[in-house]
Amino acid sequence: MPAKRKSSSRNSAPELLFGDLWEFDPAPESAAPNLKDTYSLFIGGKEVAPRSRNYFESVNPATEKALTRIPAAGKADIGAAFTAAESGYQNYWSKLSGKERGKYLYRIARLLQDRSREFAVAESLDGGKPIKESRDFDLPMAAAHFFYYAGWADKLEYALPGASTTPYGVVGQIIPWNFPLLMLAWKIAPALAAGNCVVIKPAETTSITALKFAEILQEAELPPGVVNIVSGAGATGQLIVDHPAAKKIAFTGSTAVGKAIMRSTAGTGKGLTLELGGKAANIVFDDAPIDQAVEGVVNGIFFNQGHVCCAGSRLLVQESIAKAFVQKLKARIATLRVGDPLDKNTDIGAINSKGQLDKITELVASGVSEGAELFQSKCSLPKQGYFFRPSLFQGVTQSHRIAREEIFGPVLSILTFRTVGEAIEKANNTAYGLSAGVWTDKGSKILKMSTALKAGVVWANTYNKFDPTSPFGGYKESGFGREGGKQGVADYLKINA
Amino acid sequence: MPMITSNNSPLKRLLNDVGPVDQVAIEERVAKFATRSIKKASKLQGLNLAVSMVDLTTLEGSDTPGKVASLCQKAQHPDPELTTPQVAAVCVYPFMVKHARACLGDSNVRIASVATGFPAGQVPLRTRIQEVKQAVKDGADEIDMVIQRGLFLAGNIQAVQDEISAVVEACGDARLKVILEVSELESYDKIRAASFLAMQVIRPGDFIKTSTGKTSGNATLANNQVMLEAIRDFYLSTGTSISMKPAGGIKNSKQALQYLVAVKETLGDAWLIPERYRFGASSLLNDLLMQLRKQQEGVYQAPWKFSDASSGY
Amino acid sequence: MPRISITKTPKAYVGGKFIRSESGRVFPLTNANGEFICNIPQCTRKDTRNAVEVAGKAGAGWASKTAYNRGQILYRLGEMMEARSEELAQSIAITGEVSLSQARAEVALSIDRVVYYAGWTDKYEQVLGNTNPVAGPFFNFSVTEPVGVVSVFCSDHAPLLGLISQVLPIITSGNSVVVLASSTNPYPAILLGEMLATSDLPGGVLNILSGYKEELLDTFASHEHIRGSDLCVSGDLAKQAEVLAAESVKRIHVRESDVDWTKDTAQSLYAIRNFLEFKTTWHPIGA
Does the annotation count B209 as an active-site position? Predict the structure, then answer.
């Protein structure tokens, strides 16, 4: 056995070979997702067929095959849902003490933990995210949110100290497709803890876990009407926003839709919180722990296929280390495994939908045509399904579309900077302000950056970290209101005049 | 780089030169290696690979020629019922080298010996050098040395490097493994710095090694990772390939496979060979064999079928 | 022969300077009997734009002052108002809508409100911000930051107390403000501007315009640099303001014009909170 490989390698630059000497066999998650052929709306504590009689198919983005039929709620369905919610509020929820409300939330948290694996598989099937993320992140975090907010239900006077508050009553909630069940937990848990009842709509491409969640609510024996789950596309969402019984709207999704909702609720006196898009800068200084920064940048943009509103989609790297850093980044990307979302070793799963894949493809093409230099991982992609290679762009300028628009995919735009001031200026040069990352070994620089960055979440020497206790939400056009922490529950309370 | 200020200690400059390591982030990184699911053929291949990388070790005050002989037997034929490879080496005290050589003859199993006042290294340099020379003379193919952690922590980089250089010279054709004893280096930053310090003066194919196994701290996925990344960075900037040996605390197959995943995804295929990666371990081999038999026979195995694992119930 | 008095030309207060409207337009201020008092600048969209620009520039410096310093500066403003309280009372009563004694009461309440907020500058953060016990090796804390430039439409009644009640909580946290004074009696606001000029509040932090809501609503609600709005408007104007604010996702709070500013609830920590952002920072705990 040779101690050294080919002697000819001395003539070229040293390279690492990430090949197939020891390849991993497929390791598919085997738990059953227990899907129904056809799902129902969940209104007034019952699973009901849509009065609209309309259904659409939910497609597995990794296979392009239909998984199940999802009801498309129409006007009569939304009306019924709000009627049920108002009744749930008047007859049950508003009559319960905070202590008792909290017990329901604890029950939900526990039941979700019990059925965690089943829900994780369903989530990965429906949305394309790797099972290790749905298993290790989405599900535990969703349960943790219910557990955290359960404890707030009888402590609301501490959320807004000194203020007299009341719940809104009935709240309309609309959530996105990137973390379907987790976003549901972020919305429902604080709303219920604060004493509200909800009508919630999952995104049309990822309704399954929300509708499965109705099973948990029934197992928890939540009083009828407290949570009503209605599926459908944008039109259904508009019906929720416009319904007069919705005293507050909470929305997570794109900035364009967020603005439209803000216009729709104008003049109605409805409460509103918006968690919208982002174009976060992940800033790496030359004194950073480099390998951990590489890992953080990879996690920042490739977590959940880049379908993350707070994705670190703009890498700002200090010029003095840019070349070496990008070299390491490329080597790291070479070891990312793209493929079957249900394989436990998959790092990057399927793009959520054909539409999203088309959008990513179009934006990447624009990056190439605008003159940025594209690098893509050479990994093999499954023949079927919506997949996209981990990609990065070098030579990106602030004016490129790929530096300004939210791609919502596994595509990183790399820019460089020389000074702290330039880093701050470039990071803040966006209408968004959801999150940012800072990598440096110098503590005082972290605090300076954290203070200067116009973003609701700043991750220092880490990225894409979430916790029920930690408020999350944006500055500027990334929305307003916070989810998580005491701020999260406060946003579901009205201060009495 | 010219030294600008005189109060900059060599250790501080070295630390500055090689850059920091963030503790939380690297521990998070290696936790991901542990989530890799290694099944079926890839598991079999990984287990066999691990067997071929074992430095089968006995470093006890109670070691006897007889114990070393049975160790050598096991090293050459790990399991008569399996077609496993031989282990890479046996690792013994210098006094036992000649016994091991007598057992192994011209076998492919190499003899490694922990010379240089193992494990503390608190012996005069001249004595340590003599110990190395004697071990090589007695038939050692590889020498595992300890660095003087005290010198390193005191900032006396040059002295540590000089000592390593002297041992390199004493080794002759024998491979050298430089034990950093990471549990006594205080931080990941310093493990990284010590790795570079050693790599600068050893030869291609020589090793850096985590631990003696004689302190409370052993190899972990995290300190292994710090050293793998140092090896990678050194290789990419100099073209020189340094080998790696985690030692101590790696007791079962699951752990060994996690270490191999780290190698695969940090240094790539070129390091997935016994010349580039070793496990310093005494009880690991038996667990690897148990798992291999389970893979072959489809039944979980009882410990008493494997020598040295037959204590307990 | 009696001395002919010098009349004062009321001006808007922008960037620490007294200005006329760039348009040169004025509107007459009259008393309850319709008698002419003086001409008031009728500020325009362009005046608003200029005010937003200086507010944007001044805001960063104001926000970066220590909370203690901001408290001292606001308290100093209270001292100056106290010293000139009679003058302020006269200005409130000038239109004859309220009696001089009612005006004096409004001034007293206004001064107390300034002191109330001066006291909050170095405390609201301690009540609203917090550390978060995340489940991992991270130090995680949420702090508040001012949103930036905030536009304000005052109510027409209580021309001094209304303005103070809306503006003080906003600038307490380091925001800067472009405010449109009561259009029925902008005189107290104009007088306040003269006091601000000699206070330690940096020029540009509080910019006082006079004019008409109908004319300025578009700019006050749609200007993208304005990050928050506190507007006393109702009906269609309120809806129009909220629609316009959507384009830049502004933090907009509209309220009816008939707010009772004398109520205890008219001063609150939560008036400060309305124009704050929460920023959460994660940092690993390691060595």
Answer: yes
> What's the CATH number where C142 sits?
3.40.605.10
Give the count of domains, chain C: 1
Query: How sure is the predictor about B307, in pLDDT bands with cuts at 50, 70 and 90?
Result: low
pLDDT tens for C210-251 read: 999 999 999 999 999 999 999 999 899 999 999 999 999 999
Locate the domains of chain A by residue range: 41-276+476-495, 281-460
Q: What is the pLDDT of residue A4?
A: 40
**Whether C11 contacts C210, CB under 8 Å:** no
Residue ranges making up the domain that contains C183? 13-284
Residue A8 has pLDDT above 60, yes or no: no
Q: State the pLDDT at residue B6.
A: 55
Provide, as residue numbers in chain B, all residues whose Cβ is less than 8 Å from the Cβ of A18: 264-265, 268-269
C6 within a domain of the structure (yes/no) = no
Q: Is beta strand A373-376 parallel, antiparallel or unpaired with respect to A391-394?
A: antiparallel
The two structure tokens encoding residue A37: 């052929």
Contact C138 B24 (CB under 8 A): yes
Q: What are phi and psi of B156, to 5 degrees?
A: -90, 70
Helix (H) or strand (E) holding A295: helix A290-302
Digit-coded pLDDT (tens) for B65-100: 999 999 999 999 999 888 899 999 999 999 999 999
Does C7 map to a domain? Answer: no
Domains in chain B with CATH codes: 10-296 (3.20.20.70)
Checking if the pLDDT of A3 tops 50, the result is no
Evaluate whether residue C244 is within a structural domain.
yes
Of B144, B189, B206, B287, which one is the catalytic site residue? B144
Minimal Cβ distance to B239: which of A10, A26, A291: A10
- A26-47 pLDDT, tens digit per residue, is 999 999 999 999 999 999 999 9
Neighbours of A, requiring at least 3 CB pairs below 8 Å, are B, C
Q: Is CATH 3.40.50.2300 the right assignment for the domain spanning A41-276+476-495?
A: no
A475 pLDDT above the threshold of 70 = yes
Report the percentage of chain C scoring pLDDT > 70: 100
CATH class of A281-460: alpha beta
| Triad A481, A484, A486: Cα angle to 5° | 85
Residue of B20, B236, B269 with shortest CB distance to A289: B20
Q: What is the pLDDT of residue A497?
A: 79
Do the domains spanning A41-276+476-495 and A281-460 agree at the CATH topology level? no
In the predicted model, is pLDDT for residue B308 greater than 60?
Answer: no
- Our CA-based measurement puts residue A428 at a distance from the nearest CA of chain C, in whole angstroms, of 14
User: Is the torsion defined by CA of B221, B223, B224, B229 positive or negative?
Assistant: positive
Residue C218 lies in a domain: yes
Element at C18 (helix H, strand E): strand C17-19
Residues 6+ apart with CB under 8 A from C227: A476, C147, C148, C149, C150, C248, C250, C251
Closest alpha carbon to B279 in B301, B303, B310, B253: B253
The Cα C263–Cα C270 span in angstroms is: 15
